[in-house]
Design brief:
Length: 133
């Protein structure tokens, strides 16, 4: 198996594991308005991003980024069309996990995620997330 194939396979395996870790680490407390933040795990490596789920519900969501690669990576996102990119998480060292306090995702929107370091976005570290009820 090629190096690229092994990395994609590793990301596909790690994403569900990361999602379970995120779900298990959050206390079931209700936030303002009575709803719990949803969870979104993002796993990145050379050179891909994989979500723990392709769609999230509108409202607050805890985004957790796991760097499963060999290089340092960061994670930014923006609503499409819409707001300016924000440095959301990172940079994150290889093998590390970092998270962002709950971020509010808008109903019916799409968000583009990518790594801003070097040419990582152009080489495949990008993904689109959909938000719907």
């Amino acid at each position: 198996m090629s190096r690229h194939g092994r990395q994609r396979w590793r990301a596909a395996i790690l994403a569900p594991v990361l999602a379970l870790c995120v779900l298990g680490s959050l206390a079931p407390t209700a936030g303002a308005g009575g709803s719990r933040p949803s969870n979104l795990g993002v796993t990145g490596d050379e050179f891909s991003l994989v979500f723990s789920r392709p769609v999230v519900k509108p409202g607050p969501s805890l985004v957790q980024f796991q760097n499963a690669g060999e290089d340092e990576h960061d994670l930014v996102w923006k609503r499409v069309p819409g707001d300016h990119p924000k440095r959301a998480i990172g940079p994150v060292a290889p093998g590390e996990v970092s998270e962002r306090t709950p971020t509010r995702f808008r109903a019916g929107a799409q968000y583009r995620f990518w790594c801003t370091l070097a040419d990582h976005r152009e080489r495949g570290m990008r993904a689109t997330l959909r938000v719907r009820r």
